[in-house]
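Q: How do we represent a protein-ligand complex in a form that can be generated token by token?
A: Start from the inputs.
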Amino acid sequence: MSSLLQSQAFSAQALALKLKQTRLVNPADSLPTPPSCSSSGTTSPPVQTYEESYFLRSYEECLAIYEDASRSKAEALGMLSDEEVILLVDRGKVAPYALEKLFGMDELERAVRIRRAVVCQYPRGSNTKTLEGSNIPYEDYDYAQVLGACCENVIGYVPVPLGIAGPLKIDGNMYPIPMATAEGTLVASTSRGCKALNAGGGVSTVLTNDAMTRGPAIDFPSAVMAGRAKVWVDSEEGHTALRQAFESTSRFAKLKSLKTAIAGRTLYVRFATSTGDAMGMNMISKGTEKALDAMKEFFPAMVVLALSGNYCTDKKPAAINWIEGRGKSIVAEAVVPGKVVTTVLKTTVEALCNLNIKKNLIGSAMAGSIGGFNAHASNILTAIFLATGQDPAQNVESSMCMTLMEPVNDGEDLLMTVTMPCIEVGTVGGGTVLGPQQGVLEMLGIKGAHSKQPGSNAQTLARIIASAVMAGELSLLSALAAGHLIRAHMAHNRSQVNTPAASVPVTPGPRTF
Ligand SMILES: CC(C)(COP(=O)([O-])OP(=O)([O-])OC[C@H]1O[C@@H](n2cnc3c(N)ncnc32)[C@H](O)[C@@H]1OP(=O)([O-])[O-])[C@@H](O)C(=O)NCCC(=O)NCCSC(=O)C[C@@](C)(O)CC(=O)[O-]
Ligand SMILES: NC(=O)C1=CN([C@@H]2O[C@H](COP(=O)(O)OP(=O)(O)OC[C@H]3O[C@@H](n4cnc5c(N)ncnc54)[C@H](OP(=O)(O)O)[C@@H]3O)[C@@H](O)[C@H]2O)C=CC1
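Then emit the structure tokens for the protein with 3-hydroxy-3-methylglutaryl-coenzyme A bound:
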């Protein structure tokens, strides 16, 4: 008898568990019949019913608790089980993206867990797919740093392998090169470049400019009025008025220059500012908005069409960035001894210089490239961006790079430079607030705001990136010159685990030319 009861209790619990694992989108539409608890008139303790084990209360009861004005939403949700909260979400009483706000800071992981159950069932209505047991991790993550800063509607996080290239000697200091990437060969290649560069004494860098930009579009009733406004912005009076308004919004943003352009009756003003250790897009956008308010006092008829008129230019290819610079502009330089080119890089100074001209300069010119006079600057830059919490979409302009090579010392050695006018990075703000990314910045000695010289940490990060790009350029160009590219990628970049076994080849037909 008792074994029968035990088995009933077990099956009710198993059902509850199964339901948690395979929850339907709208449980009310598809509630299974609660299992029967009484079978033989026994007086043993009652078995947990479906209602008790799964939805402890009806929807109406849950709603009454949730809407009771005498308690806060966080308190109300604290009284409900996960399943009951899901019921409220499914009935449209709670927005899934608002869970963190409603739960409060102590229940952030619970909010994520519940959202996974609610949001991630595809196709909707299917009772088979939830994120329980999924490969997408969500536990043990500091969601407090994410909230209101890095992401909305969070269901977990996606880990990316973090490799270390180098160390690389940059301006006399040794730095490890952190690279978050899923492209095998990249870290190995960059490391080889570091080894060759170190053998020549390392990399020297120069920062030629440091200014983030924002370029609003402003309409005027006529081209004549737009022209008058342009003259005013370009004047000392206009510049001073805009600077004062702009700089009132931040302790760190300092207006450096204003560049104006007109198209018909639309005026574009490119605000260029230093932004301390922040990459600065929020900061500069806030300042620009304030400056435009001030401008409107002088030109009441102007209409700000958009704070961003693409004259900035953010996250899109644009010649203005390549020509004027955006973020940190860096030139990095190194000499690699000829014997290192032969022994470490398995090529020659002559072959490298020839290939660099034919590929990175002429090849890119033939392709009509803007700022793409390099082999793979974006590979190294993006991997460091991901590792250090930068805005990855800014790799578009940040990766603009011209790689130059020439023989020196009677052709014996290689002089190499990379010129990168738009490295957009920060060590405060954005994704740099996340724990792992902060750990990487700490490893480099540039975490957060510089204590004495605001901006110095972000500038060092830009120098590290340009130098690491040089290492990557040197190694890939050498592999191409030596004909080793595919050999390296077959060794490091083709998974033996996930690549399916060779299928039966199709019998080749006659080749036609
Ligand atoms: C932020 C909103 C959506 C508010 O917009 P809103 O209209 O105030 O929002 P709302 O509270 O009325 O809600 C409307 C809907 O937005 C969604 N929504 C609302 N809040 C959330 C949330 N927390 N989590 C998830 N979804 C949310 C949700 O779908 C909601 O509908 P509901 O479900 O309530 O019926 C709006 O102001 C917006 O879209 N702003 C634009 C922000 C943006 O796109 N930023 C991109 C980065 S900028 C940049 O990187 C590049 C740049 C700008 O430089 C490029 C350039 O040069 O142009
Ligand atoms: N708004 C937009 O159009 C765009 C936004 N973004 C996003 O913007 C975010 C980055 O914006 P960003 O302005 O860099 O960062 P934040 O918005 O986080 O602003 C930086 C904050 O740090 C403070 N701060 C403290 N110490 C320093 C220091 N030493 N140097 C600089 N600032 C310091 C600033 O103070 P204070 O308040 O005094 O300035 C400011 O409040 C990213 O998430 C990015 O993805 C990206 C592209 C466009």
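Confidence is low (pLDDT under 50) at residues 1-53. The chain is about 40% helix and 15% strand.
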